[in-house]
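Q: I have 218 residues here and want to know how they pack in 3D. Can you give me a structure?
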Amino acid sequence: MLHPVICLDGPAASGKSTVARLVAHDLGYVYVDTGAMYRAFTFLTLEAGHDPASRTRLKQLLEKVDFHAEIQNGEITLREGTRDLAPHTRLPEVNAAVSIVSALPELREYLVNLQRKLRLSAPLVMEGRDIGTVVCSDSPFKYFIDACPTVRAERRRKQGEKDNLAARDKIDSSRAAAPLLRAADAVLLDSGENDARALADRIVREVRARQTSAPTVP
């Protein structure tokens, strides 16, 4: 059985993670940050001493890595064997290389398959850059969250992270495999003009309204 998925896409520092967590809490869904999966593989790539842009090295890593993305106790866990990868996903060197690693088609195919399997476990609020366009394109609940570059840069500064957002946007939007795009049927939300709580409330209202009005299957 495939559970419902609420898709939240958007560029770096758009505020989608904050909104997604609020929506997941309000609805009792599981929050899934797909970006953390790409960050986990970026960490493993760097830890192994590989060139982040090397498709050959990535293929070798995918063939031998014991990677698990599973839902346990209402939360997503990312592990290599028994090692929890979460503490390593926000390292500065990972942040600097994640857009390069995540652009590799082999990794995107590998992780998209894992992300789709999570729908078998629980209702999800899944955020990333290709959720509504690729991972769960059949979902009726699609949102694209964005904000102006100035707002996004200030958020990164407050988070203590140094990002060239323009460069990341260019890589994410121009990559051959699943580029960052707003799905044709995704609702555009401005997180610079509205706070996260207001956006989350809107999404929750719309999801509940559509679920209530959906016809009952005999």
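Q: Anything worth noting?
A: The CA atoms of residues 37 and 111 lie 7 Å apart. Residues 196-213 form the longest helix (18 residues).
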